[in-house]
Amino acid sequence: MRVWSMWMVGMLAAAPARAADAPAPDAPAPEAPAPETPAAPVRVGARLLAQVVPEYPAEALADAVVGDVTVHVTVSPEGVVTDAVFASGGPDVLVPPALAAARALGFAPATRDGVPVVTRLAVSFHFEPPIEAPPLEDVAGSDELVVARARSVASHELHSVTTIGVEALDRAGGEDLGEALSDVPGVAVARGNSDVSKPIIRGQFERRLLVLFDGVRHESQKWGLDHATEIDPFAAGSIHVIKGAAGVRYGPDAIGGVVLVEPPPLRTEPGVGGRVQLVGVDNGLRAVGAARVDGVFAAVPELTWRVEGNYSRGAALRTPTYLLGNTGSEGWNLGATVGYTGAVTQLKVSYHHFDLQSGVCYCVQSGTPDDFLSQLDADAPLGADRWTQTYTIDRPSQAVTHDIALARVELALPGGADLKLTYAFQANLRQEYEPVRAAITGAQYDFTLRTHSLDATLDHAPVALGKLGELAGGVGLAGTFQENVYRGLPLIPNFRAFQFGVFGFERLAAGPVELEAGARYDHLSRAAYLTRSAFERSVARGTLAEADCAVSADAARCPAAYDAATASLGGIWHILPDRLEARLDLSSATRVPNADELDMNGSAPTSPVYALGDPSLGTETTWGATPTLGLRLPALEAEVSTYVNVIDDYVYFAPEIRADGTPVVDVTIEGAFPRFSFRPVDAVFYGVDGGFTVGPDAPVGLTVQGAIVRAVDTATNAPLVMTPADRVQAALRFAPPDVGPFADLFAEASGLYVFEQTRVADGAELAPPPDGYLLLGAAVGARIPLGARSLKVGIEANNLLNARYRDYTSLLRYYADEPGREVRLRLGLDF
Amino acid sequence: MRAPLLSVLALLVACGDTTNPEEVNAEEVITTVALSFSPASGGDARTFAWADPENDGTPVVDPIVLADAETYTLGVSFLNELEAPAEDITEEVDAESDQHQVFFTGTAVEGPATGDNADAVVTQSYEDTDVNGFPVGLSNTVATLGVGGGTFVVTLRHLPPENDAAVKTGTLAEGVAVDGLDGLPGETDAMVEFALTVE
Q: Least packed by Cβ within 10 Å: which of A38, B24, B29, B185?
């Protein structure tokens, strides 16, 4: 299905290959690849009969909104669209007309051995304001229908992008953000010592990743390995994972990649709708309930609103052979959004609160290194036989909240330019409770991070450059004011920081080739406020000079300023439009060290190490190349992406080793702790990830994915610690025809094999890396149409064989096995 | 232009708590382990300390010197010298004695936590009990066995209940004798090593 405006028709002259590629209207669908055996069924895809031109929304006229919306439609054996679900794209104003048009489409049904069967198709609509003539449409009746020029994140990024859509998010319902991303090739998960996790993209942890919620950089104490990303996955309508250094657009610390968490589009048609989801998990006896209600009052159709919330509670998790005592958790989220769409203005105001309390496994011995080392080889943690599967959260534990309030104005300026202004305030509170004497109350580690941010982007109207093609681009400004207040056992300092960045990028679309260049400059001024004793410790250690700080009776103010330049050059080559494309990004980004890397000085609560920052650390500069090749055929989709990131003065956190090879230890009254320090090394990260899907829309489909990451200190050729091990995973999916009241039936069997990390440097590991492991999973699901509503049900099972395993990037690996078999039952009602 | 603008912004959004860093929660910290050996035969108590009053990893450790053929009452106390005046943590340990125990190990000592030790120059035995009748170790009897020396390790273990069930038992010291300190439940609040000489 192609719906093109006159403008798009104009593009055809410049891109004859693409026009030729587009099947003619009413063309019969190409058949599936010829069956290899006579017994194999012959499948013919659905063919579009009734074309529908989506109505260009009147409210978008003044803004001259341009966009693409992809809708997943289910076509019944009668050829009728029985379901249309928003998949991706936008802006929001274009979604309702796209859904309406999709529902009105008429098809000749797909057949299997000549018998009509139900199918699911992706249909994309391109919206342009009608100028001289009504939009022209073009139709292709294959199983996959895509416009020639989609404008979604995935299509304009120079990097590999994986989008987690509504269906995958439904299936991940009740998991945290890290788990929800775990099926993306190149993404590994760092688990903590409680029921939380965070993503690792191409070997980079959250320090060198960016997570954006509704376009705003998520700000938190993200340096902590056991500090999960404080974002509610139920608030997401789609998640885009951009792999690779994307510093120009998103900020110079986007070395490993960017995770864009996008809320679902707001409702535009009068009325009320929403969804309710319930999830039950056997491991940890966890229950989750979530609800979202969207509405538009008929009296004020310009105004749209959303209220959402969820609650979850779980008891201690179970490994195959013992309980992980005190790993219960309790969380809740609340959100409210109001949107306004005017003639030239769109406004949005939203507020989200995240709240999580989680127990830290009793098995974590945060005492002495002797305690730590002695339990490494134990078959089960000491005392595991005493632990019970209770919901009560005891010390040690974490209590975390994150609040974000944002206000956004989008203005359509005369001449076709778009101005977007976003202000956001975020407050992140993190309290960590250690086992202490009963006379002591409160948290032992108490972090408060307040962030104000103001972002402005101005996209100019596309400029036609004749034979050269068309130029699109814009400029942006980003300003941040941030304050960190820490109270507790010595660890990190207070700080106050101003940062501003200015960036610009231009893209030239010339026939099958799009080229993009971008540049960015950032300045950061930050003052650390240290207690007098922390200051004196740093001076004694030689990492702070007294002259660099203003010292008073009980505090020291140590200012520092950094400049950072980022640039990128790349392009997309549509070798076979909509079928085969190559992307390349060449970029350099300079990252400013974080406050913890400079000034951390203390024993981390859940690691038996003494962590030491270095206030003299400078910026680190990444030089990266990221080529990606993507293939999209009706019967086969594949993508492979490789990368090389050379990082000068990479801030590396690892054990300090003396010249004689023995570890440096810091003596405290609780014993001698191995010292881990932040120090600059020259490093290179490289690797490859990707996968393929055979039969993406066939009744039987197979997906295979894999990822390899290598990280090396180039001076010594030693591997860097905490680099995820190689992994390969596969999923076999079976989508039978509808049975009785069940539609969209599927059954899936999957397997993940993670190899042992054999690339480790001498003396750099607290414990040898664990063995490789195989996890099997299975899932079934279906949708039960109930008139205008639909009920979705599913069962997901992970670690089906109840395998005992430990993961190299999990903090828990030093103390205990990972949780065993997990069966999740989910129910969702869309209304 | 930028500086005044930034200061105005700072006034609008900044809170004073950032610029006034606090030392908090230091009450959990133990900086000093003090030992007081009172001779049964009378006379002044001999006092020795492992002290890191700045809690910066630079402890001053007194060597323990005891007289031969003497029996001492050993009192153990724990201080937080980051506070002024120094906070006596011993009272809290005593108040929660059902969740704490002091263990005495090292080459110089023979006691419940060491088992037989042919090299020992002193013996140790517990003289106090908690509400459950289990040893605590804030008060002990130490008798010298002969001239010589060795190490004397004092460990304060915090034994908080798990899932509301007590983890302290009456035979933890005997368990240390077999499995070492690593086999104990709970966490170490302090573990310090002295050199001990009997003259």
A: A38
B70-108 pLDDT, tens per residue? 999 999 999 988 877 888 999 999 999 999 999 999 999
Residue of chain B whose Cα is closest to the Cα of A323: B163
In single-letter form, the type of residue at position A645 comes to N
- Judge whether B2 lies within some domain: no
Contacts of A366 in chain B (CB under 8 A): 187
Q: Residue A62 has what pLDDT?
A: 67
pLDDT, tens only, A539-593: 887 778 888 899 988 889 999 999 999 999 999 998 998 789 999 999 999 999 9
pLDDT at A398 over 60: yes
**B174 Cβ under 8 Å from any chain A Cβ:** no
Report the C-alpha gap between A277 and A175 in whole angstroms: 13
Q: Which domains does chain A have, with CATH numbers?
A: 2-151 (3.30.2420.10), 162-378+395-830 (2.40.170.20)
State how beta strands A47-50 and A773-786 pair: unpaired
Cβ proximity of A430 and A355 under 8 Å = no
Among residues B13, B169, B46, B191, which one has the least CA distance to residue B106? B191
Computed from CA positions of residues A673, A678, A683, A687, in that sequence, does the dihedral angle turn out positive or negative? positive
Place of tokens 């992307």: A583
Cβ–Cβ below 8 Å for B19 and A555: yes
Name beta bridge partners: A75: A81, A119
Q: What 8-state DSSP symbol labels residue A41?
A: P
| Residue B63 CA, distance from chain mean position | 16
Would an 8 Å CB–CB cutoff place B113 in contact with chain A? no
Name residues whose C-beta falls within 8 Å of residue A18's C-beta, 6 or more positions apart in sequence: A12, A148, A512, A574, A577, A578
Q: Do A367 and B9 touch (CB under 8 A)?
A: no
Average the pLDDT over A610-615 and give the result. Answer: 87
Type of residue found at A592: V
Separation of alpha carbons B187 and B156, rounded Å = 9
Q: What's the total number of domains in chain B? A: 1
